[in-house]
Amino acid sequence: MQLVLEKRAERSTKIAIASPLIAIALTLVTMSILFAILGKNPIAALIVYFVEPLTDSFTLMEIAVKATPLVMIAVGLSLCYLANVWNIGAEGQFIMGAVCGSYLAVVTNGTDAGPWVLPAMLLMGAAGGALWALIPALCKVKFGANEILTSLMLVYVADLIMDYLVRGPWRDPKGMNFPTTASFDPVATVPTLFETGRIHWGAVVALIVVALATVMLGRTIKGFEIRVVGAAPRAARFAGFSSNRLVLFTFAISGALAGLAGIIEVAGPVGVLQPGISPGYGFTAIIVAFLGRLNPVGILIAGLFLALTFIGGEGAQISMKIPLDLTKVFQGILLFYVLACDSLILYRIRLIATAKKASHGVA
Amino acid sequence: MGLLEAIIISVIAASTPLLLAAAGELVVERSGVLNLGSEGMMIMGAACGFAGAWLTGSTFIGALFGIAAGCALSLVFATLTLGLAVNQVAAGLALTILGVGLSGLIGAGFVGEKITPAPHLYLPGLTDLPVVGKILFGQDGFVYASVVLVAAIWWFLYRTRAGLVLRAVGDSHTSAHALGYPVLKIRLLAVLFGGGCAGLGGAFLPLAYTPFFIPGMTAGRGWIALALVVFSSWMPGRLAAGAYLFGAVTILQLHAQAFGLGIPSQLMTALPYLATVIVLVLISRARGSAGSVAPASLGIVFVPDR
């Protein structure tokens, strides 16, 4: 007997909706096994991971805080991936956005600068992320250099630039030699939504991004162009769509969104520029984009779900001494299952007899 | 030991993990599969390699553990990309995320532990030769393995029938399939081989480079290995040259920091990554008019029709 893939005549809509759910269910089963191997009660661990964060208004708000950058970055990445453009350096674009936006916060620190500071910071953050993303895009368009590798290498460079700035020119003179800038002034800070909790206006920005992306993909020529270039490059050429222009466009947009997420993160929940501002948001956002089926609304749900795992992972580390790395394992496994289940939308798995194979020659 | 000799030895040590992982990936890509999970397989090789060596006290068994870990991860990748026709880029990224997480879990118990580093070859007379003695006859087993590996891959790809078939599969899976070659099986073997090489390259780090394990100790070497394959135009000879060039850049960076030339240390640390970008651009540009030399089926999903 042998398992083979057989192309479906058309995409299966039923499986398209069910596949992320199946993937999550399979991940939970795998996680239970892992918990058992680590000597923890699987049921108790799953409850700490996925239920407890939902029962408390503080952790609920923390989930929204964590989901904000994930959703913003993932929406940008989904545009790239739909167009078959592989930007995997969002982490670097996030950092460069934070760095460029923080420049204003650092130079105006302690002055009586007006309320123009925050909007200007957000603009500079988006511009910084977009420019950083345009480096691999230009290298691809002008020279044909593989964007996967160049965009990823620039993550390390961005990280080192930030490290240099906060240890050198931008270091807070009163900061006891810690590598950090001075705390941002109130005019350079993203205000919180409510009196208590850390949830801030960035969450609203993320929702607006989701709405705009939904409209752009579904209702505009540009959105159509992205989908055609990705799905049928030959047809796109006949239609006169330039794939080079689209590489630049999708990189710039995704870089701008990652940069905006970066500056909102440092001007919001973090409040200073310092190393370690991102627990790998730029990479986790890749999972969010795929789990959300490269669809803005799906990404919103997926972003909240992945944020839940971050918060649940922290809770599990504190209350059950489960290593934090398990969250990464969980995210990796989830992405595998999502990809595998997605395959079932296009193919069905058939069991065929090996004897038949012999009569057909080599299968 | 002269300064030049010391520098060359440290360059070789810095290059060896890159060369091992990149050599494996070269074979994978020649078969038409793009496995971006190098970083994940290397870090798992490092964690499991250290665990093996610590438990048994043997570098050799540690190296075998590293290879096994790389193979196991690459098998997951193969199941998805070959068995279920999943997008190779996305699956490779998932493999890296998974590998980094798993290695943290496995390695957590070994942080702070020490092992005896891999023994170096010693041939009386030969190893004591001035300048070249230590370089040629005083290395550890990983270094010799990496050189033999690259030579063997060259011989396999260009001098054997099986190598020709592997390249055919990578250049046109449809034609190879029509000729009756088992495309998926050949690719499975290539992916497993690449996983083993990446695992061995990762295992080199805690077993020979530094005699302890720290989480994330591969520090992007898996990605640089991927870039090296592009840099080499998928040719084993150039791959070795590229790996030693990158090792040299890494060491240059360390020495420049030690001399304290007033250059920010972060700029020097960024050098290997910047060099990768610049080299990729130069190589791609030089190739621009001649067309790509990448295996024609690289990264394209293949589902055989019956």
What attributes characterize this protein structure?
heterodimer; A: two-stranded antiparallel ribbon; 14 helices; B: 306 residues; mainly alpha; globular
Explain this structure to me?
The complex is a heterodimer of chains A (363) and B (306). By secondary structure, chain A is mostly helical. Chain A has a domain of 231 residues. Chain A is 70% helix and 3% strand. Chain A has 14 helices and two strands; from the N terminus they run βαααααααααααααβα. Chain A has a two-stranded antiparallel sheet with strand order 1-2. In chain A, helix 4 packs across helix 11, helix 5 packs antiparallel against helix 6 and helix 7 packs across helix 8. Chain A starts with a strand and ends with a helix. In chain A, 51% of the residues are buried. Chain B has one domain: ABC transporter involved in vitamin B12 uptake, BtuC. Helix content of chain B is 72%, strand content 0%. Chain B contains twelve helices and no strands. The longest helix of chain B is centred in the N-terminal third of the chain and has 28 residues. Classes of the chains: A mainly alpha (363), B mainly alpha (306). Chains A and B meet through strand 1, helix 5, helix 6, helix 11 and helix 13 of A and helix 3, helix 4, helix 10 and helix 12 of B.
